[in-house]
Specification:
Structural class: alpha/beta
Number of strands: 10
Number of helices: 6
Length: about 230
């Protein structure tokens, strides 16, 4: 029997949905709009990938969600949609670490991969992976400066990917730094990761699952118009 999983990625401005079969992406629908449009587009994209793949939602084996870190609002929208589908269809929920999926966009045989997402000011959410995508440093919220990731850079190539690259390339000038620009997390790389979790029944409690925010949400007061 084939395994069909619907994958949802909303941790950044990329509203991304894929439908996978046995870990391979069949259909991918996403939009790299710089503005957050998940509330308007997510369910449209879900319907679109199912129709294009000619798969009924009742034939899905699981729903996978990118768990974070990332945008508070984006993660809330994605998780709410995934939970709603799981409850309605009585399907298991699988969570995929956002930075791990992002790291899989880098194909290399040497060095390490730093997947990083933009946070406030000069801060990023970052994790470090080896060439086999094993996480070798936990996810952290860190302030960037000229010495960031210096230990890794001294040892060899460091591949930086994600929307935190724009900040990092202004500060990190080491010759071993390789900046992969204009890349955001995508539901495409979730396909294999979610399938691997499904095979070992690594699922979440739908009722109690929460996104991995890493930091508490801080509501900013609107600026005075006066």
């Amino acid at each position: 029997m084939s395994t069909y999983i619907l994958n949802i990625e909303t941790a950044t401005t990329n509203c991304s949905v894929s439908l996978s079969k046995d870990g391979e992406t069949l259909v991918l629908k996403e939009d790299y709009d710089k503005n957050y449009s998940h509330a308007e587009r997510l369910h449209v994209y879900i319907d679109a990938v199912l129709k294009e793949a000619k798969i009924s939602s009742k034939h899905l084996d699981a729903i996978a969600i990118s768990k974070g870190p990332g945008s508070y609002t984006g993660l809330r929208i994605g998780v709410s949609a995934a939970k709603g589908l799981c409850f309605a269809l009585d399907k298991p929920l699988i969570s995929v670490p956002t930075l791990e999926a992002l790291a899989h966009q880098v194909k290399t045989n040497d060095g390490v991969i730093v997947a990083m997402l933009d946070a406030r000011r000069m801060e990023v959410y970052a994790a470090i992976f080896d060439v086999n995508y094993n996480q070798i440093r936990e996810t952290q919220a860190q302030i960037l400066d000229e010495t960031s990731f210096s230990d890794c850079l001294k040892k060899g190539k460091v591949y930086f990917i994600g929307n935190g690259v724009e900040k990092s390339k202004k500060l990190i000038t080491h010759p071993n730094a390789v900046f992969i620009e204009n890349k955001l997390p995508s539901a495409n790389e979730m396909s294999l990761l979610a399938c691997n979790k499904y095979k070992i029944s690594d699922t979440e409690d739908v009722a109690y699952f929460e996104p991995y925010y890493l930091k508490d949400f801080v509501a900013l007061k609107p600026k005075s118009k006066s």
